[in-house]
Each structure stands twice: as C-alpha cells, then as structure tokens.
Amino acid sequence: MDSLDQKVFELLARPQRQEELRRQLPGVGKQALADCIQRLTASGKIVKNKKNRLAQAAHYGYIAGTFLATERGFAFVAPDEKDDKGDIFIPPHADGGAWQGDHVLVRLGEDGRRRDGTRRREGEVARILERSRAEILGAVRQRGKSFVLEPSSKKYPSEIVLPKAHLGGAQPGDKVAVRMMYYGEGRVLPQAAVVQVFGKNGTMQASIAAILHENGIQEAFPEDAQQQAGSLGDRVPADAYAGRRDLRDELIFTIDGDSAKDFDDAVSLKPLANGRVQLGVHIADVSHYVTPDSPLDAEAYRRGTSVYYPGHVVPMLPFALSDGLCSLVPGEDRLAFSAFLEIGPDGRCHKAEFAKSVIRSKARMTYNNVNKILDGDAELCKKYDFLVDTARKMADLADLLRRRRMERGALDLDIPEAEIAVDEQGEPVDVFYRPRGRAEKMIEEFMLQANEAVAQFMDTHNHPAVYRVHENPDPEKLRVFAQFARPFGHRIDPSKPQDTRQLQAVLDQAAGDPRQRALPTLLLRSLARARYSEENLGHYGLQAKYYLHFTSPIRRYPDLATHRMLTRALDGAAFTRADYTFVENAAIQSTTRELAADTAEREIDKLYIAAYMEQFLGQEFDGEVSGVQAFGLFVALPNGAEGLIRVEALPGYYEYDDQKMVLFNRSGVRYTIGTPVRVRLIGASRASGQIDFALAGEGGSAPCPD
By the 8 A CB rule, do 430 and 420 touch? Predict the structure, then answer.
C-alpha cells in the first residue's frame, strides 16, 4: 500500500464515514480520498456497512483471500493475510459464483466442528473482488449444433459454451485452453474463447503440450533471439581470447550423464608446493555471448531455466548456444569462467580466485565410466590412462569435502528420483531408480565448493548477487514429522530446528531400514522450499553461511546473473542502483520459473510413468503407502510409480485423522505413510497420468455401513 492507503487503513480501525476521514487528513483532496477508498474496497481491505460507515474488513467480520475450489462441491479461501487459523471453509452453495483462483471477500460465520472435535473457520463468499485470469484446460464437445468445453478439472462448471466464432480452429475431441469471456448468471451459461489447441484429447502428446502451456513454457524461440544466436557462429571469435587466462594445455575434462548434450562445467586438479591442491571448476562463460538487454537475454530471463522431461529438453538458450558455442565439448576452444580453490589436507578452502579463461576439454567423461574407472575397470583405465590418477585423487578429495560438510551439520537429502528410459519413438520402456555413485557425488561436491566460494566473495564485498537461500523449517511442520519418526525410536525436538544432527540421525538410520524408507521424503516435505533472493540468508540444508548458483549458466538464469555481477566485481566497476534492481528482479523471476519448470517436469513424468505401467494392468505388486488423504491412499512401487487406492475401494468404513495422517477403521486396521501393502493395478492413463490400484485379492469396493 502507498502512504495514503496505509494511513486511511489505519484510521479505519474504528468505523467512520468518509466525511470524518477527510477531517483527519488535511491536505488530502476529496477525489484523492475517494480513489483511495475505492482501491482499499476493491482489494477487500475495507468494507462499507449499510449505514455508510467504513472500517477495516475484519471489524465487520469479513476477510479477503483466494478462492480454492475442490472437486467435491465445497471450497476453501486462503486469506491474503496469513495467520495460524488456516484456510476458511466454504460450504456447498456458499461460493457466491466464485471460480478457482478468484480473489474474493468472505463473510465469516460461526466456526464449524471437524470430526476430531477441533473447530475451523467457515464463511460464505460475499463478493468477487477480481476474477482469475488463468486459462482453463479441457476438451471440446459438440452438443447438437453448439460447442462446449468439458473442463479437465471438476473444480470448474461442467460445461462452458464455446461460440463458433471463438473456436480458434478447434474440432470436437480436441484438448484446448480457453479464456473466459463471460462467467454466466442465472440460467445463462458461461462462455469462453479458445486460445490454444493442443491436439486430440486423450493422447499423451496433447497432455504434454497442455502442461507446458499451462506453466508458461514455450519451445520455439522468438525470431530475434534465434537470429542473434545464429549470428554468433560456431567458433570462439579471435578477439575473445584477449585478457583471459589460457588453460588450453591443462588437464581439464567434463563429467556428465550419458544423455547430456550441454556441458557447462569442467574440472581440474593439481598439487601445490605448499601441500595443498588447487581444484579448478571451469564454467561456460555464457555471459560473454548473452549480453544485457539483448534478445537472447530477454528470452533467457523470461524462461528462467531449461525444462527436462524424458527424451526432451526445452532449453533456456537456443541449441546453437546450449549444445554448441557455449557447451564445453572436448577438443574445442571454449570461453570459461574459472574458480580456482586452494584446499588443504583438512578439506578447508584456504583461498579462492576467479578469472575469465579459455579452455579445451580433454575428454567428455560420463558418470558411468568414471565410476567404473574408480572401481578399477581395466579397459576404461587403459583408454583414459591420462586422467585415471587425477580422477582417483578427485574422488578422494570429494570424500574429504563431503565429510567436512556433514560435520558442520549439512543434511544428506540424497533421495533417489525415478528415471524414465524412452525408445527412439519416445515411448517409455523402463522406470527405475539409478543409484548415485562416487562420480556423481564428486561433481556435486566440487560444484558446491565453487558456489559457496563465489557467494562468500560477493557477500563479503557487499556486491549485488542472486543468492540461493533455504530458510529454517516451520517448527509446526517439523513437529508433524517428529510424530511420524517417533514410532521408529527417533526423538526429535521440533523447537530446535538448527540442530540438524537430530535430523541427520533419522536419515542415517532410515537408509539401512526398509521400514523407514518413507522418512527421508517426509522430512523433505517438512522443510522450506529453497528459493532465490537478493539477500544472503544462508542455506539450511547445506548449513552454508554463503551459497548461490554459479555453475550452470547454460540452463539457469540466476547463474548467468551471478556471472555478470562477478565480472563487474573483478573489473572493479562501480555498482549502480540498476544492478541491485536487476538481481532483485532476477531472483523473483528465477524462483517463479523454477517452480513452473518443476511442476511441468513432475506432471509430465507422471504421464510417462502411467504410459509405462499400462502393460501391467491386472498384475499385483508390493508397495508401501506414500501418502494418506481423506479420499484414499497413495501407494509407491519399488520402481518409483505411484498410484491411488480410493477410500471407497477399501473394504469397510474408514475415517481420516488429518493430524496424524492416518486412515483407520473400527476393526483396528490402520494405514499411514510407510505401511506395506500389496496392490493390483486397475488403471493407468497416459493422458492424465493417473494410476489406480486396488488392494490385492479384493474384488471391488466394500459397501459402507449405514
């Protein structure tokens, strides 16, 4: 709020008419005050009663928030001003015509009572303050001579009219995105216009296109960005070598996954006369090519990050850069930004130096091959004899760095993620967990060291930067996790979140006990989400005082921003207000785009996993409960596939305890996270990603008792 809005809001802690307000605000014109009142009313911060008295919304029993629909008739409203009372329950038929995502004003009623006896706030929507501008996804259906949208989510009305003039070329059966034109009133149905056609509804290709669109992810680059990328050529320009440290003769190589095509980090290691070693972390100098305010920069900023899903990548930069000129391919001169870290026998970094460089990678190594070399594979050791000794010393150094990191209290949240293998046609052929070997952990440790060193340099010198921050967990969420961990013998004090060793003890024991397999995932859910910030707030999970992202500028914008600011710092340039504004905006944008990318990747992975599981319909599997909700149990299989057993498919009548996240019946059967179950696959949809299970041996759902 601006100063006048804030002043008026404070004065309206007690009800008064507009004329009374004016007398308390000398110098404020009548129109200015009217505009201020209109803004505060439109935002739901103040309310006028029938006697024309204005007051803060809470005084009259109102509260503004975001309308969150459900598929079961009722809804919730998340208040604008967060408090410890939670969301407001909106009973059926009390929505006031609000739709998912609308900003609404709620009239609070009497608190309702949950099944467990606790009370919750209830209310009804009094006014829609602002309609959500979110597009709605669904399928085009023909009803006689008319066309309607059948929304993909039951959170929206079942049918939305699509006038023929606004079909946008869509045909019946197509999956589309629409923009609302009219929300309907009385018997008049809502109307919308088609803005994007994704293909035939029910196909995985259409679902993928819809997920990308819904998260603001576009595959095609604007013409001006493509032209700029093409104009850079495929060779390092001769004038780019000036002033750079020439490292082309040094033993520098990349280590990445088998399918990687963009190599933005390379490493080196050499002994020093003082008994220490110099770890070199060499990062593609993307900032040399992607300059501020250029078409490439504008598009990279908009995208924020590359997006990966099975067999595909939507890159942050055109392939001419990401797979070409910026990629540290072997045998080619490439511009780099190098971090030279002097590390002692105790694993402590005694000195850090940063410099622009030119390198020529000596090998494109993969994690698999390096792991085999470290295990003594004779054939690979002979093929890569020139780097075997260095690779072994690197692995030993990484082990030392990791021990030091764990000793300071870092959490080892190395939770495996399901990998999806696809064939040449893009069809999923396997879903599995790939263990991380020493090579993967080695590169991770080296990148962490470089990121911390750059962050410390930038913060110590008060230079603007985009930091990667991870704040302390919410004690309440930690308390819930402590409840889950207690039956396994763990005693966690949620009032001491800084004591990470109590959490690491859980992770260590869970790693060796299949019964506790769910605990690491539960702990991860109880922690705050890492984000980007212009402030150095530290990193809880790493227990690092300084941390940012420096090592992946090909695929992450905050790394590119860091390179720019570090370059200015090394050049001795004076930072301006524009630089501080840039890192602040870049942090917000990068966090937003990272969340969108994570959401899209997760949703698309579900489609591929469901497509893979189609072949096993009717078969039985051993799994364990990975989530518990009032509507059913989520069950995870050993390969990473996860599906739902709906509560109505469980024999008997079950109740849900939302405090302990337990489904239980009167016979003493209890399901909670980690409960082992044997299930039968009864449904798998590659169009929705939905996987459905039933308990093995059950012929169907049992009737609920009256």
Answer: yes
